[in-house]
Amino acid sequence: MPNFVERVMHPEWYHGHRQQPPFFEGWYFKLIDASEQHRYAVIPGIFLSREREKHHAFVQVLDGLTGGSAYFTFPPEQFIAAEDDFDVRIGPNHFRADCLTLDLDGPELALKGELTFEGRSPWPVTWTAPGIMGWYGWMTFMECYHGVVSLDHSLRGTLRLDGRELNFSSGRGYIEKDWGQSFPTGWVWMQTNHFEQPGTSLVASIANIPFLGFKFPGFIIGLWHEQRLYRFAKYTSAKVDHLRVTDDHVEWALHDDQYRLEMLATRSQGGLLHSPSRTEMHKRVMETLQSTIAVRLSELRSGREIFNGTGRNAGLEVQGDLSMLLKA
User: Fold this and answer.
1) Per-residue confidence at 186, pLDDT binned at 50, 70, 90?
2) Residue 145 to residues 15, 117, 199, 220, 254: CA-CA distances in angstroms?
3) Which of 142-151, 180-189, 195-204, 318-327 has the lowest mean pLDDT?
4) Dihedral, CA of residue 184, residue 21, residue 137 and residue 100, to nearest 10
5) Over 80: is that where the pLDDT of 322 sits?
6) Where are the strands (E) in 49-137, listed by range?
7) Which of helix, strand or coil describes residue 37?
8) pLDDT score at 105
């Protein structure tokens, strides 16, 4: 049985063994085929409510092109997770860091098949920063924890959607996850790994974080470029220059003592996903996979440009109370 240290050092593992409600855990698989005409998010997970009758496992599917979504529920006893590996089974569905198998059949859609993931780029884990949350990953009282399983990888295999074969070979994928008691009261999240230069990936989020009786706007950003990860976060002493949200765009700029990062995301229509509170899974989160994100990374003092590009097929969520975040 893994101890506390081993679990913290493996954010990709299931963390719910012996957890008491309220608790949720879910993984987010982004799947884009080579033609970029088929864009899906598949989200397996478990939800343990304060009300026992609401306990259930689930697999969500978002069609990033049409905005259609489906939410498949399973009895909680059909959720089986390894103690010391990312190996999760929900009914006939199977999820790992290097593959997934789907066998979903419902009134909204039928999705079946198997994909494997090659050339994964996991977020580095160290003693001082066990994943994307940095030293906050060692805290035992956070409302919500976050992990990045793979910033970028290639796909191989096919899925059958309502009997129609979709070839995902040579496509791109991304995997992240969340676990804890509840999602934050407000957040902005964006992600893309479809830049002109393959192998570049961006994930960025800012959220209302409760901590020791007060709240603060916490942010974590990673830009993976030319096999190097540029990190910007509260725990790296980065500072937000501005965050502006309009009906059409999210504009966000920040800096640390070496670099300045500027992002401009376009907002577009998406589909509704379920997200956890302490009592139930609410269908309230609007997510799209049709946004673009213009990204510029430069040296702070010299202004020398390190990267400038626009990511396609971007995931974007703008949700809840943003008043504190816009003042960050």
Assistant:
1) very high
2) 10, 24, 26, 12, 23
3) 318-327
4) -90
5) yes
6) 56-63, 69-74, 79-81, 87-90, 93-96, 99-105, 110-118
7) coil
8) 96
Say how far apart CA 103 and CA 46 lie, in whole Å. 17
Q: Tokens representing 287?
A: 């997510």
Ordered DSSP codes for 221-259: EEEEETTEEEEEEGGGT-EEEEEEE-SSEEEEEEE-SSE
Residue 61 CA to residue 69 CA, distance in Å, equals 6
Give dist(CA 117, CA 175) in Å, integer: 10
DSSP bridge pairs for 178: 26, 146
Instruction: State the Cα–Cα distance between residues 102 and 114, nearest whole angstrom.
Output: 6
Above 80 in pLDDT, residue 277? no
Which of 3.30.70.260, 3.90.79.10, 2.40.370.10, 3.40.50.2000 would CATH assign to domain 4-327? 2.40.370.10
CA nearest neighbour of 224 among 290, 297, 146, 171: 297
Indicate the pLDDT class of residue 305, thresholds 50, 70 and 90: very high
Task: State the Cα–Cα distance between residues 52 and 98, nearest whole angstrom.
Answer: 33
Domain boundaries, the chain: 4-327
Cis omega (within 30 of 0) for bond into 22: yes
34 token code pair: 């080579």
Mark residue 18 as left, alpha or beta (left: phi above 0; alpha: psi -120 to 50; beta: remaining).
left
pLDDT at 41 over 80: yes
Residue 79 CB burial class (10 angstroms; 0-12, 13-18, ≥19): buried
